[in-house]
Backbone:
């Protein structure tokens, strides 16, 4: 009997282990991804067209093509087109025009450098249909992949996260938290990573003023490297969502996410960025309660990263576990406060303020009673931890077991850069033995 999975993940790391879930479940897998990434060419789409980030969604859908129609030459040709990125030099606009076989002016200051054709199509579909969900359905239909990818928030607006560090400072935007953009040199131009080759700087596009965004702060996130692991000035204390004015907000998750958590049999917290991929999905309203009290979820599995990154420098496995539990308890806390203040409104308190900030409610409202919220135990959110036998992250098995969590060690390998990585066959065997 096959199982079914709901997988919380980012857009990159999990792509290499997808087949492990599909082999065990006969493709009964749904992926939930965030829409707050503001780095790379996505930053230009957000700057000019606004809306949610689609890069991770596009990446996952295209990767799924390898599982569903990898032998279809026409499908693979479509994948190659939608995976293609324009050059990073200033001739990118000309190449985009050649692809379109036309000269229609786009936004005159749009920077096409390193632009993803797939992101362009998915963003265009969102604008055309007026719906992110409809755009994903159209995109999935074009590439012949089932609708297995769900945005954690279904919105037509730009989604922004922020991080408060232990030293009190704040970082706004996923790219700034996880992969800061390249620095600005003394002459005011942006330093391009060595991995990006600007092999032609002689072409001028004065008519379109293309170069302006390369030399301004408008595209500060256009060039960055995911391989840079410069640690943060201080550890992250909390992640939260903000509006355009920097005020904390509490988005409602996509209803599909809550439905998946109430129908699937296994939950996977996948490898990847802890604070910018996983936590933004977990702190949303209703998510904590949905996971803690799900009647269908039999296994709640954390796939521990093989090594540290900028966000988790110095972390142990216990730190990963506590961070996830704290995020989900924060979700539950938000729900409890909202219920309390909704009741205050119905009890006749001043309701002149249409929008109540549940962290700082109107002065006429009573403070939230702490006894009305009881944090769920960690074991309500995580039942198993799978980790690599060659991981560089310390794993205290006894301490983890004392929390009611089972530990499973599997064989790992090394990447080309010498970092521990998951082997598909080892992970498949571990998951199969767990859910069978």
Residues:
């Amino acid at each position: 009997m096959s199982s079914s999975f709901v997988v919380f993940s980012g857009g990159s790391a999990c792509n290499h282990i997808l087949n492990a879930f599909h082999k065990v479940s006969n493709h009964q897998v749904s992926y939930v991804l965030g829409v707050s990434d503001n780095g790379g060419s996505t930053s230009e789409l957000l700057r000019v067209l606004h809306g949610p980030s689609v890069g991770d969604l596009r990446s996952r859908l295209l990767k799924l093509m390898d599982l569903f129609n990898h032998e279809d030459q026409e499908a693979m040709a479509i994948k190659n087109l939608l995976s293609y990125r324009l050059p990073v030099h200033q001739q990118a606009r000309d190449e985009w025009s050649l692809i379109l076989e036309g000269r229609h002016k786009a936004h005159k200051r749009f920077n096409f450098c390193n632009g993803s054709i797939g992101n362009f199509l998915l963003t265009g579909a969102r604008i055309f249909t007026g719906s992110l969900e409809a755009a994903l359905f159209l995109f999935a239909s074009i590439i012949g992949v089932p609708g297995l990818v769900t945005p954690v928030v279904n919105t037509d607006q730009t989604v922004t996260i922020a991080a408060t560090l232990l030293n009190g400072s704040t970082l706004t935007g996923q790219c700034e938290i996880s992969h800061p953009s390249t620095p600005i040199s003394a002459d005011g131009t942006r330093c391009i990573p060595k991995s990006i080759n600007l092999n032609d700087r002689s072409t001028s596009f004065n008519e379109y003023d293309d170069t302006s965004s390369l030399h301004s702060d408008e595209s500060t996130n256009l060039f960055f490297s995911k391989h840079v692991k410069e640690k943060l000035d201080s550890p992250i204390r909390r992640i939260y969502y903000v509006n355009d004015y920097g005020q904390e907000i509490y988005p409602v998750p996509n209803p599909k996410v809550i439905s998946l958590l109430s129908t699937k049999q296994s939950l996977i917290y996948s490898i990847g960025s802890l604070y910018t991929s996983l936590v933004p999905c977990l702190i949303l309203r209703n998510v904590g309660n949905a996971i803690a009290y799900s009647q269908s979820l039999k296994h709640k599995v954390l796939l521990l990263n093989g090594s540290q990154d900028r966000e988790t420098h110095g972390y142990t496995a216990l730190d990963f576990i506590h961070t996830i539990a704290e995020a989900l308890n924060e979700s539950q806390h938000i729900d409890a406060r909202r219920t309390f203040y909704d009741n205050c409104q119905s009890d006749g308190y001043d309701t002149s303020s249409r929008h109540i900030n549940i962290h700082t409610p109107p002065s006429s409202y009573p403070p939230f009673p702490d006894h009305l919220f009881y944090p769920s135990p960690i074991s309500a959110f995580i039942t198993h931890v799978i980790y690599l036998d060659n991981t560089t992250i310390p794993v205290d098995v006894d301490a983890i077991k004392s929390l009611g969590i089972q530990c499973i060690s599997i064989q790992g390998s090394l990447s080309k850069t010498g970092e521990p990585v998951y082997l598909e066959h080892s992970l498949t065997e571990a998951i199969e033995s767990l859910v069978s």
Remarks:
- Confidence is low (pLDDT under 50) at residues 102-107, 184-218.
- The radius of gyration is 22 Å.
